[in-house]
Specification:
By secondary structure, the chain is an all-alpha fold. It is built from 6 helices and no strands.
Length: 159
């Protein structure tokens, strides 16, 4: 399997996992239980790992997408957002670990900080995904060969 084909599969992990981590953070604001904070930490770790995978497979996918005319700026924006998301997810994970280890999550202010950071990450996920969606659905990045093959198949069916 080509590395560029892994990118569309892997991007869904940070999308889902970082959103679920935020849900645990918000729940921990209303129900101050260590289990919710711990669950958010574990899910956030998996989301950060997914963000790393999505970023590096995106680097491989970028090479084939660069051949499409007129998408350089959008491709660069998507890459920059992906890099920011990856770095942000790792940084927030380190902060979560420190909060958990030092028990800073026990006061509501600590849980509010974690929820705020989780919301920022989800915002970055949305911005990155929107730019990626534009690349695919408006410019055909990653689907141009499929579209071409469908056209060839229709042409043969018409003959």
């Amino acid at each position: 399997m080509s590395t560029e084909l892994l990118h569309p599969m892997l991007v869904h992990f940070p999308i889902a996992l970082l959103a679920v981590a935020l849900l645990f953070d918000v729940a921990a604001l209303f129900f101050p239980k260590a289990e919710l904070v711990r669950a958010s930490l574990y899910v956030s770790a998996l989301g950060a790992l997914g963000a790393v995978g999505a970023y590096f497979t995106g680097e491989a996918a970028e090479e084939s997408a660069e051949r499409l005319p007129g998408i350089e700026a959008l491709l660069e924006r998507h890459e920059d957002l992906g890099k920011l998301l990856m770095g942000g997810a790792i940084a927030v994970l380190v902060i979560r670990l420190a909060f958990f280890w030092r028990r800073w999550h026990e006061p509501i202010a600590g849980r509010a900080v974690l929820a705020f950071l989780g919301a920022v990450l989800v915002g970055l996920v949305a911005a990155t995904g929107y730019a990626g969606g534009q690349l695919v659905y408006e410019h055909g990045a990653g689907v141009a060969p499929i579209t071409q093959r469908l056209g060839e198949m229709r042409h043969r069916a018409d003959d």
